[in-house]
Amino acid sequence: MGPIQSFEDLVIFLRRRWRSIALVFLVGVVISAVFAKTRPEVFESVAVLQIESHTPAQTGIAATPAAQRIQLIEQQLMRRDHLQATIDRFGLFADLPGLTAAERVQALRQSVRITGISGSGGFGGNAVTAVMIAVRLDDPFVAAEIANEFAQSLITASAEDEAARIAAARDFHRTETARLTAAMSAVEAEATAYKSANLTALPERRTALLTELTDLQGSLAALDGTRAALDSERLALSAQTPLRETGRRRLDQIAGELASVDSQRAALDARRAELAATLDAMPGVESVLAGYDRQIAQLQAELTVASQRLAAAEAEQRLADTRPRDSVTLLEAAVPADYPSGSSGKKLAVMGAALSLMAALGLAFLREAWPPVIRTSAQMERQLGLRPLVAIPERQPPSRKQLRLRMRRV
Question: Taking a C-beta distance cutoff of 8 angstroms, is the pair 13, 3 a contact?
Fold first, then answer.
């Protein structure tokens, strides 16, 4: 149970503790007033940039989203050397000689805020449509100048980044087109050399070779028939006794004819073996040439895509010269603020007074609650259930002035 449970307890509490409450309240009011008076005023200037996106050409290289590019540019603007150059150019924090160079850079970094504005809000959205650059400093004119300078730096960096991206895509596709052209030429030259080395076994000669082989088979069969007839005639003449002179001459003639038939048949057998070997090697040659054709077809398809993307990149380059894909423009320049941002001195003083009153009441209540003491007959009856017979009021000792008055009366 607390010491204040009725309006009478509250009145008694305020009578008893009004001096300490007033003392803490006055001290808090004085501190709040001093803090509000000595607190430096901060002015905020804001520059707004608009990002206008256009449909990019299909170059085959994914474009960096605007949100990510703005974040990269922000990191570049927040580099230590860039911030230090800004501090030196505008003479920032000259009235604070105790700050080190690192502390000044950190102070400026905290004073600048770059925020993306989109349908989803912030840099997390898929389509950033605007960027807000806010600078908070004690000088409104310097804050406006720095905000505008950062905005111009972001515009320049965005244009350079976009131009570099388009140029990189164009150069890449040029290199890729040249590489594919050279590779296809090398494969075609290799295929031509292979064809020259295997002219007799080219697949398109298959029909002619098969026809020639059929003809050879017929020629060999005819030669075999001729030889058989000659052998029969030779045997018949050899069986004649006695052999006449005409028969002897015919035998000599048959021997010459047989030698001629054997010579022709050997030549035809060699040609038939050559044709058979060529036909046997033809599937391998056909497979190798098919591999060359596949390589050439694949390189041709890649070259076609690369050529199309190169044409698209060059078209995007021409388009970027007149209208960048993501053009960043200054929608609203920063102007010097007329009034300081944040809470004014009066608001701080009033808030400080309210907090001081709350603190004074809280401290007085703690002193009242500890140690726990029963101070009135009502509290005793409420907490112990006992009604006191006599209540002796608290008597304060007489002051010196009261003692002097009593002495005079005596």
Answer: yes
